[in-house]
């Protein structure tokens, strides 16, 4: 996993030591399994004093990096959707994002092996 962690740091252009990264989370989905929508952020009023995650405890994530270890043509779905993210313009993005969904629905990044 160290090579994936290093690749994530370089890809995200972070010049931080590896101990500033969250541990890698590995997930393997069986047929029919999925990860449901959730939020990976918290509002600014959450503080360590009221027992919540906070900027003092590391803050919200600046970015996320997903690595698909194995992908096959017969997989349906498998993308990561960001419903509030503005969809990029231009057909050049269609190799990495789903271009057949309405722009107001956000962006779904396709699973791409590598």
TrEMBL record:
Q: Does the keyword Metal-binding apply?
A: yes
Q: Which GO terms describe its molecular function?
A: metal ion binding; procollagen-proline 4-dioxygenase activity
Keyword Mitochondrion belongs to the record: no
Gene Ontology terms, cellular component aspect? endoplasmic reticulum
Q: Which UniProt keywords apply?
A: Iron, Metal-binding
Query: What InterPro entries would the database entry show?
Result: P4HA-like
Protein name, entry field: Prolyl 4-hydroxylase alpha subunit Fe(2+) 2OG dioxygenase domain-containing protein
Species of provenance: Verticillium longisporum
């Amino acid at each position: 996993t160290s090579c994936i962690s290093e690749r994530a740091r370089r890809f995200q252009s972070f010049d931080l030591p590896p101990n500033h990264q969250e541990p890698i989370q590995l997930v393997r989905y069986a047929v029919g399994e999925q990860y449901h929508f959730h939020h990976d952020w918290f509002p600014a009023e959450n503080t360590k004093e009221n027992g919540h995650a906070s900027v003092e405890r590391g803050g919200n994530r600046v970015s996320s990096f997903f690595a698909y270890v194995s992908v096959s043509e017969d997989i349906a779905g498998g993308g990561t959707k960001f419903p509030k993210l503005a969809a990029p313009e231009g057909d050049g993005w269609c190799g990495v994002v789903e271009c057949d969904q309405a722009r107001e629905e956000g962006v779904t990044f396709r699973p791409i092996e590598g």
